[in-house]
Design a protein that fits this description.
Strand order of the largest sheet: 2-3-4-1-13-16-15-14
Protein name: Catechol-2,3-dioxygenase subunit
Strand content: 25-35%
Keywords: Aromatic hydrocarbons catabolism, Dioxygenase, Iron, Metal-binding, Oxidoreductase
GO molecular function, one term: ferrous iron binding
Number of strands: 16
InterPro entries: Glyas_Bleomycin-R_OHBP_Dase, Glyas_Fos-R_dOase_dom, VOC_core, Xdiol_ring_cleave_dOase_1/2
Oligomer: single chain
Cofactor: Fe(2+)
Amino acid sequence: MTSIHEDTNIGYVKLTIRSLERSLQFYCNVIGFQVLKKTDRQAELSADGKRVLLVLEENQSAVVLPERSVTGLYHFAILLPNRKELGIALARLIEHGIAIGHGDHAVSEALYLSDPDGNGIEMYADRPRSTWQRDREGNYVMTTTAVDIEGLLEVAGDERKAALPNDTIIGHIHLHVSDLNEAKAFYTDVLGFDIVGNYAGMSALFVSAGGYHHHIGLNIWAGRNAPPKPTNASGLDYYTVVLPHQEELDRVADRVKRAGYSIEETENSFRVKDPVSGAHIRFVI
């Protein structure tokens, strides 16, 4: 099997939300994004004022579903450049009275929260890659222990910022899927991502490009054979996977077509429906 190019990354995430005004207040004031472009029903958000990281589209009649009831988004993850910036983001969340979960995963430290429509968000900072460890099967050793909240706030000191740092990116996306074996077949055998965490005991599978601890997390925590998100519900519409050049885009598109999936192609992108999460993936360069 040919692996997807090592320089592959997650680009941006597109969500359906119920109120654009409410979501913009949250994502700009609390999270720290800035508006790049806005229409009556849609907004593109950025950290550096250039690159889109999040697209919000308003549907006032969208249904907000109970947690873990359908496939689709578990969370999208905003990767901050260092621990101090995570501490600054934590202070901002606390100041806004946001309910926060947290987990020290050994490879990273993460904060968990939800937007006004219940969409899951992770804000995290990676530990140096040189400290990441793999077990005998090649899976990254990841834990879920309590984050040192006091230590995070201490490293932030008195520094406060209203905005995310310019080098913030979408580090990964984590999805509820209907079947892990089918997810493995699609994401590894067809798309070419490498397995970096086969956590059968957790009912989760992590895949990535270039040895990252995970670009895509897949789980069956909504239940095996969970139904797909209805089209009239809030949540994930699609996410983008950024490939380094046209040759790689053509190679991945060819693999997807040969596997029997229908795709929508443009000159420098293609879109395919993920059969296990129900979301669409847009591959771009």
